[in-house]
Amino acid sequence: MNDASPLNRYQLAGLGALLAEPARAAILLALMDGSMRPAGELAEIAGVSAATASAHLKRLLEGGLLGLHEQGRHRYYRLANDDVAAWLEAMALPHVALAAPKSAPRDAALCRARTCYRHLAGQMGVALCEAWLQRGWLQAESDGMLLLPAAAEALVCAGWQEAPTQHLLRLRGRACLDWTERRLHLGGPLGVAITSAMLDAGWLRRAQRNRALLPTPDGLRRLAELGVRIDH
């Protein structure tokens, strides 16, 4: 599934059938943090037997929503690619997320900041995208979004190392529709790199029980200096 091959009505109906099963929805939700997980762990998350999970995983693989990484005798499942993650975030999961109580969509921390596959989403992701567009730090183009030099300078002043920050200028992002906010956040390689840098800098930390990202006090202060403010 990709932008170059738009879905026809039969493919869309097939994807809808895949998402209509609560256990499969739970599996997809668990992988939205960009992780790779074995079948046994996914079976536990989905609340089904190993045999049932195996059947669900087979269908998701055949449907193009999952990828498989084999390492020796071990098999690990992940979302197929960024396009699948973006499609699930924007289109599918709002309608099926209630089927997966372990990742409740109305959890306050999850709505405030979370990973959408591997990039920042939720209120904080939307606030960052909007603030940096308004400041002229992000430039939206027909084929994606670019970080401009003024943003790199501001990030270095905020404590980021210059060399990795300059690397961000060579990456391209994408506008990704946020399903809780119904506005855009920054995805793609640029969004992933910025989120990773925030985690490395200690501005954000990962929650243990779901894909929420928890801003630290220092992170909130520094992000506010960069125009990114959210309600607590």
From TrEMBL:
Signal peptide: none annotated. Residues 4-99 form the HTH arsR-type domain. Transmembrane segments: none annotated. Coiled coil: none annotated. InterPro entries: ArsR-like_HTH, HTH_ArsR_DNA-bd_dom, HTH_Metal-responsive_Reg, WH-like_DNA-bd_sf, WH_DNA-bd_sf. NCBIfam families: HTH_metalloreg (NF033788). This is Transcriptional regulator. It comes from Dyella flagellata.
